[in-house]
C-alpha cells in the first residue's frame, strides 16, 4: 500500500514539474510554446504588405541626347572644327555632311494610282482654266504626277500656288528640290552639358557658322 502511495505521489510531482517547465518558469530552455514561436518568426517592424495602387520603383532615367548643328562652313574649316571638338570631348558623336541647298521649287499635283486617273485630273484642270501643265509618264516615284511648273525662287512658286487656289485647285503641292552645295554642316550629339562645354569659346574662324536643325538620328 505504501508503494502505491509513493508511486502516485511521484506521478503527480512529475506532471507538476512538467507543467511548470512548459510555462517557462525554468528559463528559455524549451521551445516557449506556440505564441513564442510565432513571435520569433514574425517581426512586425520588418514586414511590409504590398497593396494595390503602390507604384513600382522608377528606373533611373537616362539623360536625353541633345544635338547642335553648325552650317555654312568651308570644307577645311569643318574638318578643323571636328578635330577641335573631338579633342575637347572624345565621347561626343560628331559628323559632317554637305549642306543641301534648295535649287528649285516644283509645283505639282501628287501622283495618281494610274495613267487613267492622271488624265482625268488633267481634264479637270483644263476645265478650271489651267493651261500650263503636263502629266509625268516616266517610270519613277513621280510617275503620273501632274507638273504645274518649276521655279527658281520660293516666292514665285507660292505666287502661282495662290493663283491655283483661287481657281479651286486644292491638291497642288510645292516640293523643294535640293542639291549638295560647297558648304558643310557639322553635327554634334551628346548630353546638353557636354555640348555647352565643347562649343564654348570657339576660335574666331568658326564664328561665321550658323546654327541649324540636326538631321534625324539614325537608329
3D architecture notes:
By secondary structure, this protein is of the alpha+beta class. Among the domains are: 67 residues, 2-Layer Sandwich (Alpha-Beta Plaits); 78 residues, 2-Layer Sandwich (Alpha-Beta Plaits), CATH 3.30.70. The protein contains 6 helices and 6 strands, in the order H-H-E-H-E-H-E-E-H-E-H-E. It has a 6-stranded antiparallel sheet with strand order 3-4-2-5-1-6. 12% of the residues are buried.
Major β-sheet annotation:
6 strands, antiparallel
Q: Mean pLDDT, as a whole number?
A: 80
Percent range of helical residues: 25-40%
Shape: elongated
From N to C, what is the helix and strand string?
Answer: HHEHEHEEHEHE
Based on secondary structure, the structural category is alpha+beta
| β-sheet strand percentage | 15-25%
How far apart lie the N and C ends? 103 Å
Cα radius of gyration in angstroms: 43 Å
Note the main attributes of this structure.
219 residues, alpha+beta, Alpha-Beta Plaits
Give the helices and strands, then pairings.
Layout lengths: L1 H21 L10 H9 L24 E8 L1 H14 L4 E17 L5 H13 L6 E2 L10 E6 L2 H13 L6 E18 L1 H7 L11 E3 L7
Antiparallel strand pairs: 1-5, 1-6, 2-4, 2-5, 3-4
Q: Could you provide a short overview of the structure?
A:
With 219 residues, this protein is an alpha+beta fold. It has helices spanning 2-22, 33-41, 75-88, 115-127, 154-166, 192-198, and strands at 66-73, 93-109, 134-135, 146-151, 173-190, 210-212.
Amino acid at each position: 500500500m505504501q508503494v502505491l502511495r509513493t508511486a502516485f505521489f511521484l506521478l503527480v510531482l512529475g506532471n507538476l514539474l512538467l507543467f511548470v517547465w512548459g510555462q517557462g518558469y525554468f528559463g528559455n530552455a524549451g521551445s516557449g510554446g506556440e505564441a513564442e514561436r510565432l513571435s520569433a518568426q514574425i517581426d512586425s517592424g520588418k514586414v511590409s504588405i504590398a497593396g494595390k495602387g503602390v507604384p513600382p520603383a522608377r528606373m533611373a532615367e537616362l539623360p536625353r541626347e541633345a544635338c547642335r548643328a553648325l552650317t555654312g562652313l568651308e570644307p577645311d574649316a569643318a574638318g578643323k572644327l571636328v578635330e577641335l571638338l573631338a579633342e575637347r570631348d572624345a565621347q561626343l558623336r560628331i559628323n559632317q555632311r554637305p549642306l543641301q541647298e534648295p535649287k528649285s521649287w516644283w509645283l505639282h499635283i501628287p501622283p495618281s494610282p494610274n495613267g487613267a486617273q492622271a488624265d482625268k485630273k488633267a481634264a479637270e484642270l483644263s476645265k478650271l482654266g489651267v493651261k500650263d501643265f503636263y502629266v509625268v509618264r516616266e517610270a519613277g516615284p513621280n510617275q503620273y504626277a501632274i507638273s504645274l511648273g518649276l521655279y527658281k525662287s520660293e516666292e514665285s512658286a507660292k505666287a502661282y500656288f495662290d493663283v491655283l487656289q483661287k481657281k479651286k485647285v486644292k491638291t497642288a503641292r510645292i516640293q523643294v528640290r535640293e542639291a549638295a552645295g560647297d558648304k558643310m554642316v557639322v553635327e554634334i550629339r551628346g548630353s546638353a552639358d557636354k555640348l555647352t562645354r565643347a562649343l564654348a569659346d570657339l576660335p574666331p574662324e568658326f564664328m561665321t557658322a550658323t546654327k541649324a536643325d540636326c538631321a534625324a538620328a539614325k537608329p
